[in-house]
Amino acid sequence: MSRKSPRRKPSSSCPCGTGETFNSCCGPLLRRQKEPETAEQLMRSRYAAFVKRNAAYLVYSWLPETQPPDVGELPMEGWAPLEILSTIDGGPDDEVGVVEFRTAYIHADHDHPVHEAGQFVRHEGRWVYSGGAEPS
Ligand SMILES: [Zn+2]
């Protein structure tokens, strides 16, 4: 007895590493169909935007006052997986949050480790990134 295995479109998993598909995880955020509820979700979606080279979303999700002029340039050639190490506040009812994370990007054939305490604030009611600090 043979049974055909159902043919399914390969689902692409989200680059941010939740194990969800991109379309049920960061996809709707990058398409601005919904806003992240937590600072960690915004952090994950920004990482996915870096991987997907979505400069418009990186600009959108960065506090205008702290945005570097080259935010949309994206010279990175690849990314190591994202590791979320800790979060402080940044919940649906908070106004600020900190997400400590680690990853690395490749540029000019070199690995550039990134380990920072990302700072997140509410801007016009939605979460945005305001910059990175040294992890304590
Ligand atoms: Zn995701």
When the domains are counted, the total is 1
Q: Give a count of the beta strands, DSSP E runs of length 2 or more.
A: 5
Bound molecules: zinc ion
In DSSP terms (H or I, runs of 4 or more residues), the helix count works out at: 3
CATH topology: Nuclear Transport Factor 2, Chain: A
Distance N to C terminus: 61 Å
How would the global form be characterised? Answer: globular
Provide mean pLDDT, rounded: 93
Relative helix content? 10-25%
Major sheet, described briefly?
5 strands, antiparallel
- The CATH architecture can be named as Roll
Features:
single chain; 136 residues; alpha+beta; Nuclear Transport Factor 2, Chain: A; five-stranded antiparallel beta sheet; 17% helix; globular; binds zinc ion
List the helices and strands and how they pair.
Blueprint: H1 27-30, H2 39-51, H3 55-60, E1 78-79, E2 83-89, E3 96-107, E4 110-123, E5 126-133
Antiparallel strand pairs: 1-3, 2-3, 3-4, 4-5
Bound molecules: zinc ion (ZN).
In short:
The protein is α+β, with helices and mostly antiparallel strands and 136 residues long. The chain has a single domain, classed as Roll (Nuclear Transport Factor 2, Chain: A), CATH 3.10.450. The chain is built from 3 helices and 5 strands; from the N terminus they run H-H-H-E-E-E-E-E.
